[in-house]
Amino acid sequence: MDTDEHRCQDGDVADVPGTRVERDTMGEMRVPAEAQYGAQTARAVANFPISGRGIGRAMIRALGLIKGAASEVNRELGLLDERRAGAIAAAAEEVADGTLDAHFPVDVFQTGSGTSSNMNANEVIANRANVALGSKLGANEPVHPNDHVNLGQSSNDVFPAAIHLAAECELSERLAPALERLRDELLEKSRRFDDVVKIGRTHLQDATPIRLGQEFSGYAAQIDAGLERLAAAREHLRELALGGTAVGTGAGAHPEFGRRVAEKLAARTRLPFREARNHFAAQAAQDAAVQQSGTLRTVAISLIKIADDIRWLGSGPRVGLGELRLPAVQPGSSMMPGKVNPVIAEALLMACVQVVGNDAAIALAAQYGRFELHTMLPLVARNLLEQIALLAAATDNFTRKLLAGLEVDRERIAARNEQSLALATGLVPLIGYERAAALVREAWETGRTVREVAVARHVASPEEIGRALDPRGQTEPGR
Description:
Elements: E1 19-24, E2 27-32, H1 39-47, H2 57-76, H3 82-96, H4 115-132, H5 145-149, H6 155-192, E3 197-202, E4 205-211, H7 212-237, E5 239-240, H8 257-269, E6 274-275, H9 279-284, H10 287-313, E7 324-325, H11 343-365, E8 369-370, E9 373-374, H12 377-401, E10 407-408, H13 410-419, H14 428-431, H15 433-446, H16 450-456, H17 462-468
Parallel strand pairs: 5-6
Antiparallel strand pairs: 1-2, 3-4, 7-10, 8-9
Helix pairs in contact: 1-4, 2-3, 2-4, 2-6, 2-8, 3-4, 4-6, 6-7, 6-12, 7-10, 10-11, 10-12, 11-12, 15-16
């Protein structure tokens, strides 16, 4: 609903069926009759008809968790009576669990502090609490969105804290487990494929042999390193800006408020959240988000390498590399019958490219911390949480639908091993680099294998040549 359409020329609000009148400090606004939000949210909806995208489930959940914990702390500190605090906590739980997501319509492209979304949460929680206490929507009593739901808080500390809370929860609950499942599947494939010796490729050209298990162990190690990097960066997300209020001084908040709310959130999520060491940095900058985004970009680039390698190794089926057999999940062409494409790998690749793009957006947005407040917080939040969600979903999809069903064409690999000119590297300790290079040239020019040329030239005994050109023997140090 475009709420501006329902305002009269003289400032009065027109009577529109299916709406109710709510008031904020700027006057009256028409709000849909059943909407759980109020005037400030309606005004923000009218002000920001930009993308149609909200702040997302993870941020709404974080706001609900923060408001619920704040109400409990304010009650414990004697700043909020039991009746109001209980009603706020119950309403905040509905926000956290997703029951009220439809009542968070504010666009992500809004005020840079996230004030509109913070007030959206305050209004929804106040309205739900008031109805539970026997009042009505829009009454703002006995629970007021600012005086009670937002007690001890400012959008300027709530929204940065919500970004950290949402990101850390999503990393812990979704992405880290997805990457661990991927790593474990890669390790299983490494063990299963360790008896498969194939030709290595450097610069896209034939190189000395490698075991397929060794190759997959490298992929698993990349993911393990990514998990370590994520864990290190997550440490900074666990600092919450709550307690700093408007500019980091804590004016208007109880001195123990930030610490206690962080402790409540830590207990609720089972994650080690704590009050920010320095509220001025926590509210004026988004360094922790930049660091985590960069780490997510690194994970994405690792995944690009892994998915693209597997895609190439599965190319074919007849005139490509064809060393791996990827599961067929759908027809690949509207024109070419029987064509099957590596669509699961391609989906992961696209998700990873998007993650890299999001990192660029976060890096640019993070530069807009001016004086005491960062003013592109919703943009940082949306891009960071999208990075996490994309990587988690695309990684799990890749693990389940491609990697788990991956097979090896052992016959094709064995035939290629014998044809490789790079096997001549094994002869270097016997006959020297230059003589081995001459054998390679002759094999290439005559279409014979290195083994055939070496035997014909009597460069060593057949037994010595056989040992030197054994592909598996070239996959270990000193062989």
